[in-house]
Amino acid sequence: MEKYKILYVDDEPTNLLLFEINLKKKFHILTAESGSEGLEMLKNHSDTAVVISDMKMPGMNGLEFIRALKEVYPDKRCFILTGYEVNTEMQDALNSGLILRCLRKPMNMNDLASMIEKTIEEA
Amino acid sequence: MASIKNILSAYLDVPFSDGALLKYGIDDRRKIRLVNYLSLVSVGNMILYVIFYSIVDFQLFQHAIIFLTISSLITIGIIFLNRAGFHLGAKLVLCILTPLIMGYIATVAFGKGPGFQMYLFVATLIPLFLWDWRQKWYPIIIIFCILILYTLIEFYSSTITPRIILSEQLTSFFRFSNIFICFLAAGIAIGIYQYLYRKKEIQLIQQAEELKISQAHKDKVYSIIAHDIRTPFATFASLTEILINKYDTSTDEERLKFIHSIHQTSGSLQNLLENLLEWSRMQSGNLSISLKALDLKSIAIESVDLHQELIQQKAQDVELKIDASYTVLADQHMLSTIFRNLLSNALKYTLPEGKITVSAREIHDSIEVCIEDNGIGMNKRDLQSLFDIKNSETRLESDSSDLRGLGLLLCKDFVEAHKGNIWVESQLNKGSSFYFTLPKSASS
Questions:
Q1: ipTM of the complex as predicted
Q2: Domains: count for chain A
Q3: Of chain B residues 32-91, which have a CB less than 8 A from chain A?
Q4: CATH classification at residue A32
């Protein structure tokens, strides 16, 4: 069975590396260092199952990136993975269904993997 | 003299045993002391009357002496009321009894006169100093009572015959000198009141400002601990765990990549701790500035060399356009920190193969340095909060304002320590230019 594609966007290359190493067995991992790079990546991989983004990034922040991608792919399932407290902007995004989850860094990779699997099953 | 002063202040101040210091604010203490001083002044005034009566051969001298002795004892009692902790009682006695006694003495001796009316007017001012605006009913009621007293005297004083008939000249002298003294006293009182009020207001504004800044500093430190320090440690833990668990199954290239990541993360963590340390030194005032004539270009080169690894990794182009003759009057350590932070900031927010230009130009007595990049730039919101710790709302919640973080706040503090300016011009997706000015060295 072909692995599901997961796109992870984070401006910190080490985080991308860690994400890839930990989850590459279960999923096909795509990574991007910025929102614009992430949008570019989605053009070639429109079958991506779940998009996970860091919140604080230079240029587009996580929510801006997700808003932009939802214009093209309104049904894409998105998470925010942040090192900070959940702020009101994120809370609004959760309530409106823009994002499905708001996760805190550092995240246990096994928990993250099972959350992604659950989200894909529910789809 | 010193011992008299000690005894006086020991008796006139609030007794500070049993945690009384916690109970009374500075304002309360001042008011209590003021009550004590005023009661001393009243006693002094009564002694002057005794002297005056003995000189002018007052008919009721014995009665007057008894009356004045009792009055003096009551007035001295005010100090003891204060010492016993009955501050409200002391104030009321001072404000109600003292004008009554003085009014009686003056009226019996001289009959009603304009000087006496002025005297009552001053008596109405005193309560305003003894209670603050939150307890405004006390002065209002006391002033009202004094006004009633004045009205009564106004209506019934015609029945009082003055016991001391002075020559016409002396009476008018008393009259005018009383008016003069009362105007002077009222003027001084209002002046002091205004001055204290203004001073207090300014002080409060300053305190609020300081509090806001210190709160922002605390938030900033929490935010750094919560995120900027915790994250790299989590990274270390994960990377080393992978190295341990997957050492045999990973390739040399992969292992090198992990080690490289650890190295890079430790570098940025070190930089952060360096900044944090300097910043807290700066905040606590433990960082002294030693100005020297410094060669601007060589310090810029040093700073670029420090970032060589990252520059090569991202294949960025750093160009230095600084005239070798430029020398600035600056603290070497601070100047290096400014360059280090602005350069690492530019490198971080410029995409691979981007270009960074460090240039300088002479403007009158200062040198303006510009670090320009063609990176991702900033939006207006980020620009506004960049150098302003106070307006950054709650740092823990903010999502982008401290992206560039502590380093820039440090640059701002350091540039301002040189009486220079720092500012930034930026366009989203086009790039940012950070400018700062430093004083030119006289030798340059």
A1: 0.72
A2: 1
A3: none
A4: 3.40.50.2300
